[in-house]
Design goal:
247 residues; mainly alpha; transmembrane; transmembrane helix; Neuronal membrane glycoprotein M6-b; membrane; Myelin_PLP
């Protein structure tokens, strides 16, 4: 029983497993916080600035698709890691076709992971900008006196053409409470968590790249190992066929 347990433990790709856990946690937190953050942003524009934003729902659906896609990719890379670890590698990649297929699959996943890393770096940069914007808005809520308006006319490029200057101001009363406490404060927390989770996903993708590169090398070395085994087998066969009188 103990030997079987040890054999199973040697077949577990721990590095890929850690990367998969990081990826799933990061993507899960990212999708949840971004969905909530975009919902708060939509309500902020609708109820505070009287603007109708129609592109938020497609973006939220994109987050769900990204989450499912990243989860599937992580499971596939984990499966490749299992095939490239321990005794499983010796059985699966015993033939020439198996080794070629394994190296091709590792190379394809390395390319996909590299492109996804660039995409998540871009998303990380965008989230930093959004988080900074909400943090500045929160500082304005704290520092601007209640009897004065928070003026966003300097950010006219963020508003649709035709928006009046009055609609770009947040003045005292229920509108300011709605803007500061209900939306800006909560949305800031959501986008901070989304930024941290995006960084965690980037770390997991870099980890995946290292694991796939190592698996590619292991499969390539497996070919050399099989060649050495064949040479040794041929040598032993030749030695066994020689007459014993020669020794």
């Amino acid at each position: 029983m103990g030997r079987k347990c040890r054999d199973c433990m040697t077949r577990v790709p721990y590095a890929t497993l850690i990367a998969t856990v990081m990826c799933c946690v990061g993507v899960g937190v990212f999708c949840g916080t971004m969905y909530r953050g975009t919902t708060l942003t939509l309500r902020l524009f609708e109820e505070v600035f009287n603007l109708q934003i129609k592109w938020v729902e497609p973006v939220q659906l994109t987050f769900m698709v990204v989450g499912a896609g990243m989860g599937g990719l992580g499971l596939m890379i984990l499966f490749v890691g299992c095939l490239s670890t321990g005794d499983t590698r010796n059985r699966v990649y015993r033939t020439w076709r198996g080794r070629v297929g394994g190296r091709i699959s590792c190379a394809i996943f390395m390319g996909i992971t590299y492109l996804l890393t660039l995409a998540w770096l871009l998303m990380f940069a965008v989230l930093i900008i959004v988080t900074i914007f909400y943090t500045l808005a929160w500082f304005q809520c704290i520092n601007v006196p209640n009897n004065e308006c928070i003026d966003y006319n300097q950010f006219s490029f963020l508003f649709p053409h035709g928006t009046t200057e009055e609609e770009k101001r947040v003045c005292s009363g229920g509108k300011r409470k709605l803007f500061c406490k209900d939306y800006v404060n909560n949305a800031e927390i959501m986008f901070i968590l989304a930024t941290v989770s995006a960084f965690l996903v980037i770390l997991s993708l870099v980890h995946y790249l290292m694991c796939l590169a190592a698996n590619y090398a292991h499969i390539k070395d497996q070919e050399k190992f099989m060649d050495l085994q064949e040479i040794q087998f041929l040598h032993e066969s030749e030695m066994s066929t020689l007459p014993k009188d020669r020794f």
